[in-house]
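Hi D.,

Good news: the full-assembly prediction came through. Inputs first.
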Amino acid sequence: MDGEDQLIEKLALGVPSIGTRAARRIAAPGVQLGIGDDAAVIVPGRNADFVITCDAFLEGVHFLAGRHPADAVGYKALARATSDIPAMGAKPRWFLLTLALPQIRTGDWLADFLRGMRRAARELGLQLIGGDTTRFASVLSSITVLGEVAPGHAVTRAGARPGDVLYVSGRLGRAQLGLEMMRNSAAGETASLIRRESGLLRQHLYPRIRTRLGERLGNRRIASAMIDVSDGLSTDLGHLCAASGVGARIWAERVPRVEIPASQSKLACKRKLDPLQMALHGGDDYELLFAVPRRRAKELRRAPEFRDLTAIGEIERGSRVLLLDADGRAKPLRPRGWDPFR
Amino acid sequence: MDGEDQLIEKLALGVPSIGTRAARRIAAPGVQLGIGDDAAVIVPGRNADFVITCDAFLEGVHFLAGRHPADAVGYKALARATSDIPAMGAKPRWFLLTLALPQIRTGDWLADFLRGMRRAARELGLQLIGGDTTRFASVLSSITVLGEVAPGHAVTRAGARPGDVLYVSGRLGRAQLGLEMMRNSAAGETASLIRRESGLLRQHLYPRIRTRLGERLGNRRIASAMIDVSDGLSTDLGHLCAASGVGARIWAERVPRVEIPASQSKLACKRKLDPLQMALHGGDDYELLFAVPRRRAKELRRAPEFRDLTAIGEIERGSRVLLLDADGRAKPLRPRGWDPFR
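Then the structure:
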């Protein structure tokens, strides 16, 4: 049976990481001391502010260890924690992993979990520098992610001004469709469902995080305010407007939304799935929602992934967030996204 | 019923914290943006390295929500997470709190938890700058703590050299005695036990963290290597020696140990409690264990809390960690402290 030291070694070897020995020779700014001491040591450079966030990913609340493949659990745990970093216009750099596991998950399951987390870390540009491990009856992950941004360039939720155009990346509601598909499958069929429908399930299992886009929007000061759509557009747009002290209007027909293919029409009927409702209130998509002053529109067109962006509305004075239908009728858009306590 | 936004507000008001509004006006190095955005933003000063650590504190593993008072859970969650910061010779500054709670704990229990955490934050000099909240069937806390230390002054586990003197602060085994007392009490008697024996239970419920001592040992370069005794002296001394590539010998009779008062002699018999064994292998004391080169001994005498320090042994060549009894007989000191996976 492994002890804690062996488990820490598995983690350090399982994902890109910085340990104590190699790192101590580095004289440049960055992480001087990583895994294996009481704490990690970061030597700040002069040309970056630090951005820091944390996120919990818990068995039974955010995933089902019996259903979700272990590598998807590892991938998503890190991806969703990282999402807040590009949402600040920053570049992901390092992470700390608190991981609680039952003894039975410390073998094959952990190896698969780490394989998924390794892929996420590579794609996101992250290195593990510390953490904590303990046992628990179910799998609990809590991840702290650190990023860097040019001094003063962090994009908060608070800078949107009337007249700014609201953009969102990707198509919203995809993660919710994936979740509904997983929920609708029998426990024994999950693996075959995932093989068959990997495309439709991707945003639910292996969410894409818009690191390049977010970083550019920050470094070039293109976005005046930004948030990642983790709780749902209606909730997160409400957060952005409240922080900026503004209102907004968005056009329902412009909201880029999940397409429900014929293969899922039975599910859609049964669960009354409506693409617009999923796009407005579904969580877990991790797309970027941001405001752009009109004078920055030209610069925006040069941003990476510009073709994945949609202008869905604009910022207004006041505090009302309105949804306009095809006939131009406005209704208040109430926050009805994910809230763990509702 | 509270939503997540209300819960976050409770946390921000419940402990010393930095939010988004007040902070944005600060131009100096430090936290520019705290709670309430996607991530916190820290502007590094030129005269400090950052030290960062995280720690989980879980119901059923580390505490019992039905037994341990909520304010002690809040206090200890933050204190034990912070312990690694002075153990690096650094000064605690900020923390991020990931908190998962069942709905029934969001009222009075949470208020008491936050009262304990507030007291710890004040004593430790910490401000809350971010976190994550979610629901769960039991109480889970995972805390990330950031500290600052003069550039290059972080004290790792790795600098001990043969001839250095080994010191430990306080008396070891006190937390274990408290734990045994709690375990031995009936569920309904815990509250009266705590009132009656608050002194004996203090290190178990409200562990003292040696912030001033740790910071001085780092800033004045007094300690060549340091670790906090969280898993037990035998285990943590092993970690320090392994990281430094050295051995050590300690004298059993010099190890400062818990005193078991007459009131607990029945418990001591029943549970076969031996003060030396508790001091060697009991965890959760959070005292500092460190090596001091002999030429720094004079400087050490001026350190705060010097009177609480005991020289228990010295660093040697090799890799053996030896315990010497009163007759000078040496035995290997095997790591038999706390390991969650054993």
